[in-house]
Amino acid sequence: MADKELKKKKTSAGEYTAKQITVLEGLDPVRKRPGMYIGNTASEGLHHLIWEVVDNSIDEAMAGRCDKIDVKLEPGNRASVTDNGAGIPVDKHPVTKKSALETVMTMLHAGGKFGDGGYKVSGGLHGVGVSVVNALSTWVRAEVKRDGKLWAQEYKRGKPTGAVKAVGAARGTGTTIMFEPDPTIFTVLDFNLNTVLDHLRQQAYLTKGVTINIADERLKPHKSYTFYFEGGIASYVKHLNHNKEPKHENVFYVDKEQDKVRVEVALQYTEDYKETVFSFANNIFTTEGGMHMVGFRTALTRTINNYARKQGYLKEKDENLTGDDVREGLTAIISVKVPEPQFEGQTKAKLGNAEVKSVVDGVVTDALAEFLEEHPRDGEAMVGKVILASRARVAARAARDTVLRKGALEGMTLPGKLADCSSRDASQSELFIVEGDSAGGSAKQGRDREFQAILPLRGKILNVERARIDKMLANNEVKSLIIALGTNIGEQFDISGLRYHRIIIMTDADVDGAHIRTLLLTLFYRYFSDLVTKGHIYIAQPPLFRVSRGKEFHYAFTEEERDKFVKELTPKDADEKAVKKGAKSKKPDVTLTLDGAMIGLEEEGKEGDEGEEVTKTSSGVSIQRYKGLGEMNAEQLAETTMNPTSRIMKQVTIDDAEKADEIFDILMGAEVAPRKRFIQTHAKTVQNLDI
Length: 691
Prior knowledge:
Blueprint: H1 2-12, H2 28-32, H3 35-38, H4 43-62, E1 68-74, E2 78-83, H5 100-106, H6 129-135, E3 137-146, E4 149-156, E5 159-160, E6 165-169, E7 174-181, H7 193-206, E8 211-216, E9 223-227, H8 233-240, E10 252-258, E11 261-269, E12 276-281, E13 284-285, H9 291-310, H10 323-327, E14 330-337, E15 343-344, E16 350-351, H11 354-374, H12 376-408, E17 430-435, H13 437-446, E18 452-457, H14 469-472, H15 476-485, E19 502-506, H16 511-527, H17 529-533, E20 537-540, E21 545-549, E22 552-556, H18 559-569, E23 613-616, E24 622-625, H19 634-642, E25 649-651, H20 657-668, H21 672-682
Helix pairs in contact: 4-6, 4-7, 9-11, 11-12, 13-19
């Protein structure tokens, strides 16, 4: 009886038998969980469809069968990729008994990259690329030129609408994939031309001798672009340094195959204080480096030290140059082609092949030593740069130690002007970096003392883009911020010591506030990049307007919101007259890419007196334009900008490190000419400008 009752109870709670096991066939898993295959269903995932198809063409190029790739963005959210490679086989597959083309297009993990003879090296190793594109598109058409014929097959949401068949005669060989992303899958359907251009330019640098054409046929007149770089990654280094001052004329470059691993490395030193090094494995950007990066760094440090001692730049009593010394001001690209790469993680962010380390080490050591002997002027400039970096490192270490020792004497390493929170749980705590003592006072009164800390800054901090760490640490505002964060800086940086997991920049909505915000972003990007990449940096969004009539009021963050609230508060029978408009404003985009890195130059308020700017309409609606945080009392600031339940806050992210790096160089670097060109280029498109 008890067993029957137990069985009955289990059944009523929900059966778990073979019936509950769901089997997804064909490409259904992709449509069910698209994020597993393309990252997300927003803009990044949408563009990933193009990358997957282009990767197949790049693989053909690396196999020596393709030297031209055409990419088109077409009306109706369609895109196409054409190459002059060998063409996907169309004969019957021995296992699936279907055309090889249909097999590749409709089955996961089917392709020429798993067995022998298809591809020597390949970026798309999982064999899911083009089939994923097929699964996530409402319509796909594949055309293949082989054996003097043009073969074609069409698909609807991953399923063939007919058999593979010859539709005409054709010359040469190649493959064309046309597709239309599924609007029921993607939240964004508009391909961004700049995103496509940036990615394909990078691929052209990494695959020298290949021509990549891009055509945007969505608007008239059509736009077209061509990328072709005979110099490969040596040209890439020159491109990265075009806004910098090189220390030596010749770019070091080596391209050599050893033990079936092809190693391609290019480098050049500049006057900068930071390093710009990107690594790739089979044309895949390895954001976290890997064994090829380790081998390169080892070879670079050893070879520079050996040369410096051989030429007498370093004496016997001198310490060896460190890895940080030899990488200051370095711009380098490391690209390896590996037959069977082992990537760590689903995103292929790190190369794990142990054998690659020794191969890269050996190739770079031999080639760089030869380069230094054959180019003594370049060698002298390179060694001079790193020795200067070494001396600065010693000075910076002394300055940093002084800061930390002094901080330790000022009460648990915390600066006096920091109003700390009572919580010691970093994951729940947040630090507001506030512009000025006035706003700092309001923020201190309006905060939640349990988890919100306030650090007011006096004036503008040092532009760290133009300063070494020793000079930076002499700046009182920067010192206070470093001590408050608790992570240390430079060689001793340790993110585990971070005292607040949300660091919020809160500045006025005017040019000065925007400039301060840009200076702070520069500091975080250059010296605390982990805080940015791990999502700890935010930007507060105070309202620009307060719209009121009588006792009713609303806060507006944009001009559009302001006008909407004015309309809502205006009586229906009121005599409608034009509303006097204040300075233009817009809600900022804080993604730290080409546009986002310009934060602080694109969002403005109206400079003027510290008094209130209030406009009244004929119907009695008052519009107050906030020109500074100090104009709000503590209650208003807390309600609009600090209270987690009612505030608007933007998280700073880095979608494209190369673009962010370039824009910081232009806007904050020492070179005036690139900044002047930038201003001249964008002057006519400025929407918000304080006068």
